[in-house]
């Protein structure tokens, strides 16, 4: 070598000869009281495991691994069987540690369970902790036999437990499982020590699996920690003047559920070469229909409380893989059910490693009709027509007025007299996704379906056969109407579209209200649907005479001016007074009086002026059966179901002026700006009488008088218990 030249690199090649452990017989189980020969065997196994782990970290040329993994939090019920909620986060980074534990010195000092003002944190060990000096010094080890299960015969177990128990510190004990042939650390199963007896059924502990890659690298491939969720069995309030003291003893705590936090490596690559891909359990579901009207194609499945979802193929087969092992509540829906606002079909499913296929049956056509329309209408043999409205650019069109019109002959027993015909109209507005439906449609009659909107109009013809429970019509809003020339005009220039909206005075919308509208000598009759609304298209602008009647309410008529365009006429019915107009009207696409109530709600929501608010999207995501279920987790309210459902606030300043004792404080309830009054002899409103979730635009909760808007604040003590404000669509 010439002086001054750089020294050539020297390359060491390590033979890939695994360390082989000799057969080991378990001779003693006593922790930290073993004979010299048993202690020597444990030391040899442990030292060989350390060597194997260290040699696998010699990665060729230092090329980094790209690992993809998930971290999850899942909540189970108190039986630890059913997944109630789950959150998943996906990551992809160059790393050798998808999971890293707390440093071994800190765990040795503070323990594996740490509680502070923010809660309780449970820690799990990684390979660095297990191979550290503090862990070895703080635990006793002995050999154990492998479990009697498939593939476990080639394992060696090293059990460990704390060398000393400390009253104020929680430790871990468990077993490390090593491969007898390669001395690789395969997994660790552990449980926490020195915890209260109440959490024992949750089996607090965890598991960490270690992964050796095909190129010699290693990772923590899977880990999880089981943590108990505890809560008070009951509260025993001590009531005093102006204050409430709640005491909870340790004995009153019970197990409420189990939380599992963990992670799993799903994919590992190096230089674009796949070196590992996870496999796991799956859920396979076949969606079956009993009726040709309810199609299984494009079915969609989600797992309740998780981010898991999957779509089906044209045959109704849905497969979701891989899935974290457990039992889930699957929610399955098809486009027909979504368009009608029907809740998904639910059933519990288990993840499987085999090819097992579960079966889920969709509702029949008659079941769909019962779910979407009033029962009286279905029993009377009436059908339903539904569909979707899109713009010329295929975008869903919200707020379009869809009407169905047909002519029926009036009965006349006089001979030689020509039968008279009356025109019948039913209508609906499209929702945000452009879907609409109309119930109460007759069979075997020529139906004219049309839309009117600012984006344009369209018209179609349809006849609903007696053998079909419902039919579908999709419409496209164009500037020039497309369809039959004989269909009634929709959105003609200079014509009016009238929307009738009927509410009970101080109460919810009123269905089945008969409305007769007379304009230019022509009388037309409609009946309000389940949302209290009805549509009348192609009306001559001018002064209308509107008559409203419903059994149990005072009937009468109103004179209302309308202009070209869309007109909303809100009518209030009372059991004692004649029909009156509500304070808000829209005439000729312009607001006539006041500000629309939903605009007030949106403004307050943007400014965060209420304690909590729920939008239509919030309601759809939670999908409650009854509206009051949206209020069950509101901090300011306590929802009580004892024969009827009431909203008791958590405020404590509602004091009886006679006894000076605290009374129950019930929130006021308001629908569309009108306060609901309790039934005679009752203290509070029954929340089961609120409008249906599908009819609601938004919900606001005001915890006290300082937050309630002045126009809804009430007087005197009525302010103090807060306000629940419901705003319909």
Please, could you describe this protein's structure?
There is one protein chain. This protein is mainly beta and 729 residues long. It folds into five domains: 36-72 and 89-243 and 263-268, no CATH class; 283-366, Immunoglobulin-like, CATH 2.60.40; 384-409 and 421-484, Immunoglobulins (Immunoglobulin-like, Sandwich); 492-594, Immunoglobulin-like; 598-728, TonB-dependent receptor, plug domain (Ferric Hydroxamate Uptake Protein, Chain A, domain 1), CATH 2.170.130.10. Helix content is 10%, strand content 41%. It contains nine helices and 46 strands. The strands form twelve sheets. Strands 1, 2, 5, 6, 7, 8, 9, 10, 13 and 14 form a ten-stranded antiparallel β-sheet that branches. The protein has a five-stranded mixed β-sheet with strand order 40-45-46-43-44. A four-stranded antiparallel β-sheet has the order 17-16-19-20. Strand 43 and strand 44 form a beta hairpin. The protein starts with 35 loop residues before the first helix and ends with a strand.
Summary, kept brief:
The protein is mainly beta and 729 residues long. The protein has nine helices and 46 strands.
Key descriptive features of the protein:
729 residues; elongated; 5 domains; 10% helix; mainly beta; ten-stranded antiparallel sheet; Immunoglobulin-like
Helix content: 10-25%
Which stretches of 5+ consecutive residues score pLDDT under 50?
19-31, 56-61, 235-250, 481-491
Proportion of β residues? Answer: 35-45%
Give the biggest sheet.
Answer: 10 strands, antiparallel
Strands, total number: 46
Alpha carbon gyration radius: 35 Å
- The structure class reads mainly beta
Total count of helical runs of at least 4 residues: 9
Shape: elongated
* Average pLDDT taken over every residue: 77
Termini gap: 90 Å
How many separate domains make up the residues? Answer: 5
């Amino acid at each position: 070598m010439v002086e001054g030249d750089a020294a050539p690199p020297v390359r060491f090649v390590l033979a890939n000869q695994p360390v082989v452990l000799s057969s080991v017989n378990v001779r003693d189980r006593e922790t930290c009281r073993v004979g010299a020969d048993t202690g020597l065997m444990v030391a040899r196994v442990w030292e060989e495991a350390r060597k194997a782990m260290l040699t696998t970290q010699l990665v060729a040329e230092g090329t980094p691994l790209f690992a993809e993994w998930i971290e999850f939090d899942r909540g189970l019920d108190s039986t630890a069987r059913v997944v109630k909620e789950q959150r998943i986060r996906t990551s992809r980074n160059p790393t050798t540690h998808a999971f890293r534990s707390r440093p071994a010195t800190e765990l040795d000092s503070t323990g594996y369970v740490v509680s502070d003002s923010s809660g309780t944190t449970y820690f799990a060990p990684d390979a660095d902790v297990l191979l550290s000096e503090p862990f070895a010094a703080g635990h006793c080890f002995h050999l154990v036999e492998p479990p009697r299960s498939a593939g476990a015969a080639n394992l060696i177990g090293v059990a460990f437990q704390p060398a000393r128990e400390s009253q104020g510190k929680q430790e871990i004990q468990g077993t490390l499982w090593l491969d007898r042939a390669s001395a690789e650390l395969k997994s660790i199963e552990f449980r926490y020590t020195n915890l209260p007896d109440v959490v024992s059924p949750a089996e607090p502990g965890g598991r960490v699996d270690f992964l050796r890659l095909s190129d010699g690298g290693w990772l923590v491939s899977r880990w999880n920690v089981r943590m108990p969720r505890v809560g008070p069995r009951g509260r025993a309030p001590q009531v005093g003047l102006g204050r409430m003291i709640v005491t909870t003893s340790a004995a009153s705590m019970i197990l409420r559920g189990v939380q599992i936090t963990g992670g799993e490596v799903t994919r590992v690559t190096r230089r674009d070469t796949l070196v590992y891909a996870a496999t796991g359990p799956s859920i396979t579901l076949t969606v079956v229909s009993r009726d040709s009207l309810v199609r299984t194609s494009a079915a969609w499945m989600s797992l309740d409380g998780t981010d898991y979802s999957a779509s089906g193929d044209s045959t109704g087969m849905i497969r979701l893989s891989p899935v974290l092992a457990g039992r889930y509540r699957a929610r399955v829906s098809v486009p027909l059910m979504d368009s009608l606002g029907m809740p998904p079909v639910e059933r519990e499913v288990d993840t499987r490693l085999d090819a097992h296929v579960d079966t889920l049956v969709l509702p029949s056509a008659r079941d769909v009709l019962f779910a979407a329309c009033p029962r009286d209408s279905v029993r009377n043999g009436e059908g339903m027509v539904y569909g979707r409205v899109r713009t010329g650019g295929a975008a869903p069109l919200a707020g379009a007025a869809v009407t169905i019109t047909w002519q029926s002959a009036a009965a006349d027993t006089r001979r030689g007299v020509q039968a008279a015909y009356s025109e019948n109209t039913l209508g609906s507005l499209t929702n945000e996704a452009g879907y609409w439906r109309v119930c109460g449609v007759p069979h075997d009659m020529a139906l004219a379906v049309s839309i009117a909107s600012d984006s344009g109009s369209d018209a179609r013809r349809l006849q609903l056969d007696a053998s079909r429970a419902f039919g579908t019509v999709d419409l496209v809003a164009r500037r020039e109407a497309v369809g039959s020339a004989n269909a009634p005009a929709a959105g003609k220039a200079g014509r009016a579209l009238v929307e009738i909206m009927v509410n009970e005075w101080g109460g919810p919308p009123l269905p089945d209200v008969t409305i007769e509208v007379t304009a230019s000598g022509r009388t037309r009759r409609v009946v309000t649907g389940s949302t209290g609304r009805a549509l009348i298209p192609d009306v001559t602008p001018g002064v209308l005479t509107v008559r409203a009647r419903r059994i149990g309410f005072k009937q009468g008529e109103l004179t209302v001016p309308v202009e070209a365009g869309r007109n909303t006429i809100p009518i209030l019915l009372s059991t004692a007074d004649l029909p009156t107009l509500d304070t808000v009207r829209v005439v000729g696409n312009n607001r006539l009086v006041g500000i629309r109530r939903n605009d007030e709600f949106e403004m307050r929501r943007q400014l965060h002026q209420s304690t909590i608010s729920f939008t239509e999207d919030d309601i759809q995501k939670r999908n409650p059966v009854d509206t009051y279920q949206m209020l069950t987790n509101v901090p300011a309210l306590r929802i009580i179901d004892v024969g009827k459902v009431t909203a008791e606030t958590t405020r404590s300043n509602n004091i009886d002026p006679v006894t000076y004792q605290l009374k129950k404080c019930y929130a006021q309830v308001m629908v569309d700006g009108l306060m609901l009054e309790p039934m005679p002899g009752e203290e509070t409103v029954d929340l089961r009488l609120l409008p249906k979730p599908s009819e609601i635009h938004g919900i606001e909760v005001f915890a006290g008088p300082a937050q309630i808007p002045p126009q809804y604040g009430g007087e005197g003590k009525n302010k103090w218990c807060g306000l629940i404000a419901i705003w319909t669509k």
